[in-house]
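PROTOCOL LOG
Step 1. Enter all chains and additional molecules of the complex.
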Amino acid sequence: METALILTGLGSVFFASAPIVFAVIGETIAERAGVINLSINGMILLSAMGGFVVSFQTGSLFAGFLTGALIGALVAFIVAFSSITLKQSQVAVGFVLALTCRDLAYFLGNDYMGKGGPRLPAWDLPVLSDIPIVGPIFFHQDLITYISFLMIFLSWMWIFRTRPGLMLQGIGERPASAYVRGANVNLMRYAYTVLGGAIAGLAGPAYSLSVKAGWNGTISGLDGFGWIALAITIFGGWNPLRGAFGAYLFGLLQWLGLVLQPSLPNVPSQVLQVAPFPLMILTLFLVNIGSTEWVERTLAAMPESSRRFLTRALRALRASPPASLGVPFERE
Amino acid sequence: MKVELRGIHKYFGVNHANDDITLTIPSGTIQGILGENGAGKSTLMKILSGFIHADSGEVLLDGKPVVIESPAVAIHDGIGMLHQDPLDFPPMRVIDNFMLGQKGGLFPNRVRAARDLRRLQKEFDFDIDPENYVDSLTVGERQQLEIMRLLYLGARVFILDEPTTGISAAQKDKLFETLKKFREQAITVIFVSHKLEDVEKLCDQVAVLRQGKLVGAMDKPFDQKKLVEMMFGKEVPLGTKQTACQDRTVLNLDHVSIEGMRLKMKDIDFHICEGEVVGLAGMEGSGQDLFLRACAGLIRTVGGVVKVNDRDLTGKSYHTYKKHGVEFLPAARLEQALAPGLTLAEHFILAEKQTGVFINHERGRRLAEERIKTFNIKGAPVSPVESLSGGNQQRTLLSLLRHPLSLVLVEHPTRGLDIESVVYIWGKLKERCKQGAAIVFMSSDLDEILQYSDRVLVFYNGRISHPFDANKTNVQQLGELIGGKGWDE
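Step 2. Run joint prediction.
Step 3. Record the structure below.
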C-alpha cells in the first residue's frame, strides 16, 4: 500500500510539472536563438485563462490548447519584433509584457472565476501502464503530460542532433559566424522565438485544463511558474534534458513539502511551501560557482587529488549561456 | 581560380575607402596585399567576400562577372575568407564547427564528417581532435580548422586577413606550407598583411594600398625599401637597441611556483633590473601569460617569494602590486584594460587621483587633449575608446600609465598593429626604461622579441629556459626551444 502511494505521488510530480516543462523548453529554444523572452510568467497566466475560457465556451479541449499556444506565439512575436526589428532592450520589453499579460489575464478572466469547465481526462497507455513501477509513474497520465515527455525528447533531438539545430546553436552563440555560413539570422530568431513562445504557451492550458482545472484568478497558484521556469532554463544549461530534470526536481521538492508537512508539525507549513524557491537559488549558485574567481583561487591552493576532482565536478556542472543572448545582430 | 577586380569604388560617408581599384590575380597565385591600418585593405576584402557591396566596379571569377550578395554566396562561388579572429563557435565542438553550415539532410552524419575531417587533417599534417572544444584550441589551430572547413565547402580562392597575428612561429610555418600546397592545386590565395617579412617569404606578387588607392605592385623578388616607401610614403626608422644596465633589482622571484587551470610551473628563479627589457617567447599558452599575471599579483603564487623593489609582496593582491609601481597591460586591450563606452577624456579622469564627488569635465578634456598630442592618438577627447583603432587603443593605454613606474608587464605589445605604431609604441616603452622602469613582455613575434629585449626567456609547456642574451641568440635557437627541442630529459 505504501509503495503504491509513493508511486502515485511520483506520478503526480511528473503530471504537475508538465506546465513548467513546457515553459522551460519554450524558453530554452528562444534563448538558444539569442532572444530572452522574459514575458513568459504573465503570458502563461494569460494563456491559462484564454485556454480555459475558449474551451469552456466551445467545449473543445483542442481549441483551448490551441488558444494557449497562439497567445504564447503572439506575445513572443511582440518580444521578437521589438527586440529584433526595433532593437529595443529585450529585458525591458519582456518585463513590461510580463506585467501587462498578468493583469490582462486577471481582468479578462474575471467573469469565469471559479466556474467548472472541461478537463483533460486521464488516459492510461495500454500495455505500458502495466509495467511495474515505471507504469504507475509515467503512464497513468493524460495526453498533455505525454506530449510534455515527447517534447523534451524532440526539442533535445532538434537542437543537438539535426542540421538546423546546429545552426540554431550557432545563431545564439555567434550570429556573425552563423551569417557567414548562410543563416538568415534575424528571420531564424523570429521563427524560434515565436515557436518557443507557442510551446511555452501550452503551459497555461496544461495547468488550467489539466493540472488544476478551472480559472481562479489571483488564487490560481500559477503566478510565479514563469519566473521559476526562467531560472530552471539557466540551471538546465540551455539543454532540454537538463532543463526537464530541473523542472521535475522543483516539482519533487513541492510534492515533498506537501508530504512531509504532517510528519513535521513544528515547521510552519509556509516554510515547506516556499522551500523549493530558495533551494532552486542554491542549485543555481552551485552550478555557477566554478566560474567565480575566488573559487578558482581557493582551488589552486588545494592539494592535487581533491582539486582535480572538484575542478572536474564543477566544470561538468557549469553551463555557459549562448554568448550573444540578448544582443541584437547587425550585419556590417 | 582567376580573380579580377575592375574599378572598385567604395565610399563610407565622405571617406573614399576604395578608390578605383583594379587588380588581376592569376589562378594559383599567392597575392600579397600590403598597407597600413586604414589603407582600405579590409574594405576591399569585405567586398570580395560579400560582407559589403561596392558602390561601383565589378568582380570577375575565371573571366565571368559575379555579383557577391553575401558571404554565403561568396563561398558558393568559391571565395572563402579566413578572418583575423576566426569566425567560428568557440564553446562548440570541433566537429560541430566543421559541420555547421554544410548543406545536407536533416540529420547530419557525424561519423562521415569526422572521417572527412581526419582525411583533410592528414593531407595538411594538422592534428586537431574532432571531439575537442574550439575554445581550448589555439588561434593557429582554429585557423587550420577554418581552412579545412572552407576547403571542404569548395573554396577555390582563399582570403586571409592578417593570419600570422597571434599564432606561433611553428604554426606560421605550417600555414605557409599549406598555402604553398594550394598553389599546386590552382587555388588562389590573397594574403592581407602589414608584415613585410611574411609577405616577402610567401607571396608571388604584391599590391600596396595607401589611403584607398592602389599605389603600386611588385613581383618577386621584392625590394623591401621600396615596399616600405610605397606603404607609408616615407621611410620608417626601426628602433635601436640599448645595452642593459645591471643596476638595482626591481623584481625578484625566488623558487616561485605558479599553478593555472592547465599548467603548473615550479621553482622559478628570476630577477629583472632597472631599465631592463625581458622578452618571453613560446607557443601561446605555454605559461607566459601565467608568469606575467603572477608577476602582477593577478594570480596567487603557490610557493616561493615574490619581491618588488626588495619588498616581500608574496600573496598580496594586484592593488598592492600597483601601489609598488607595477602595471600590467593585457592582450585583450578593450576587454580587460579599457572601459568600452567611456570616452578618452573619461578614461583620463578615471586614472587620475579622485578629488571631490563631481566630475571635472573641463580638466578631463584638457588632460585628454594634452595626452592625445604627446602620444599621437588619432581621436578626440569625446571619442568613445572602442571607436579607436587597435594602435590608438594601445597608445591610449600607454598614456594612462602612471609616473614613476618600476615594472611594466605587457602581453603582446604590438599585436595587430601597423609598423608605424609598432615603432612608436616601442619608442615610448624604451623611454620608460630610461626613466628606470623594467619591462617584461610576451610576444609570438620572435623578431620583435630579439629586436627589443635585453634578455629572452623561452617557455615550453610550463617550463622556463635560462635567460638568453638577446644579442647572442637567434631565431633558429629560440625556435627550436619553442618547438620543444633541446630541453633536457
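Step 4. Note key features.
The longest strand of chain A covers residues 122-124.
Chain A has 16 helices and two strands.
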